[in-house]
Amino acid sequence: MNPLQRLPLALALLAASCGGSELEVGQIPGQPDIILVTVDTLRADHLGCYGYFRETSPTLDALSEESLLFERCIAPMATTLPCHLSLFTGLWPHQHGYVANTGAVTTPYSPSSGRQPISAVLAREGYVTAAFVSGPTVTKPTGIHAGFDHFDEHPAKSARTFEDRSRPAADTVARAVEWLREEAPEGKPLFLWVHIWDPHEPNIPAPEHEVFQADAALDALLAEREVDIAELQELDAVQLRRLLDAGFAKRVPLESDSERMEVNVELVRDLYDRYDADVLATDEAVATLKEALHELGRWDDSVFCFTSDHGQSLGQHAWLEHGTITRENVHVPLIIRFPGDAIEQPRKISQTMSLVDVFPTMLARLNLGASSEFFSQAAGLDVLNPDFDRPFALSQRSVRPTRWGAELRFAISDDRYRWYHIPGGAEELYDLQSDPGELRDLAEEFPERCEAFREAMLSILEDRPFTLPEGSADDANRLFLEQLEAFGYTGTGD
To answer: What is the Cα–Cα distance from 423 to 141, expressed in whole angstroms?
Structure first.
């Protein structure tokens, strides 16, 4: 069965539990500036506008009150480079060819037919394109700079401590604001991408952001998330150090200290305090950028998009960092503010969607000739179109042979359920309405729904899988493609 045959079956089976979209389609005149802020490792539920109990995000909360807030945006992977490439190309990881950060080390991303980044598409439309990035996994050696006229990245330092591998949000935004004031050409539309790293471990916040202290409310949250100290103690020594020992990030060389820590609740509380402090630093950096855009007269007529590449486990499901595809790692914030009154704002959009849908949704509001090129390649869809008919989003686990083993793992999310699948192995099903922490497996009770999710997964995986170029040394993607073929997920297996 080909993908076009599978998809209607999956849609029909899933439609009963998923709300449809009844949104008006508005158009923005001219060529507005497009401002994109992506944050590394920011889970949606640590922002006030997504229900968090701490005041981590006053700027973003206020922004959400004049914007579209997408309540169920799902990352296709919990790994930085693949997710950013999915955002920029509108393609799933198996289509653009990067299923781990490591692939770009040997085979950097290079645009090709059907794999064009939004930066190159907008440049052909006359946009001036500029990027300011904070972390190592989205720097020039990965190839993600393709299509940008100006690309400012954190310079590598010889010490290579964890702390040295990135720069704070305030510094990156300062560089972007300086460019806006002194170098951005007048009279031309801008596509500006600002990437922020702060919520990523090792979480060493500046003193002025260390305003959160563990209390009964935090302990209640840890209990609700069923953070188990004994299970965390079983994690490998380096992961424990990376997340729970801020001093680890300052030592050289980074990998040398593998002494096992004794985990206790105080260390987990401290992790939450530090993580939330870095979320607050992110929010303040966004405020600085927003104020500069106001001062320069660029805010009112711009499209402003805020999102993240993936979340962070923070002890849920016996994990501390990211890479896995539990909900806390793939549910990301998405706030889009459109200029003018062509689109009704503020509004909360409850439809399940993916990061691959972000630029198709924004471009559909703009009268740009180059948009047709992007729409022709993108697997993502316009979520605001009343005919949007994909009520689910796919996620897959990062391919890290040296860490995860060779096991593939996928997930499908819709407006109510979340389904996990290991090819040739187990599957799990969770009702997010009654069990948001994904603790009670319902797969045996609802086999028909599991079958619908399986068909939905196959409809995506069989659509245009990427073929490695001759001589590529990307072992992670080669392993992934071989596994897809072995399980018959590319349309070429048995």
So the answer is: 33
- Lowest average pLDDT, out of 6-10, 188-192, 345-349, 430-434, goes to 6-10
**Average pLDDT of the residues in 363-382:** 92
- Output the pTM of the full model: 0.92
Q: How far apart are CA 7 and CA 15, in angstroms?
A: 12
Cis peptide before 423 (omega within 30 of 0): no
Evaluate whether 72 touches 415 at the Cβ level (below 8 Å).
yes
| Residue 450 domain flag | no
* Residue range of the domain that includes 386: 31-391
Total structural domains in the chain? 1
Inside any domain, residue 457: no
What is the crossing angle of helices 265-295 and 237-244, to 10°?
Answer: 50
CA distance linking residue 237 with residue 248, whole number of Å:
11
pLDDT band at 101; cut points 50, 70, 90: confident
Considering all CA atoms of the chain, what is the largest pairwise distance in Å, rounded to the nearest integer?
62
249 within a domain of the structure (yes/no):
yes
Helix 447-461 × helix 3-14 angle, to 10°: 140
Residue 226 sits in a domain whose CATH number is 3.40.720.10
Q: Are 413 and 72 in contact (CB under 8 A)?
A: yes
Q: Looking at the domain assignment, is residue 461 inside a domain?
A: no
Pairing of strands 190-196, 128-132: parallel
117-128 pLDDT tens trace: 999 999 999 999
Residue 84 three-state SS:
helix
Across residues 25-52, what is the average pLDDT?
94
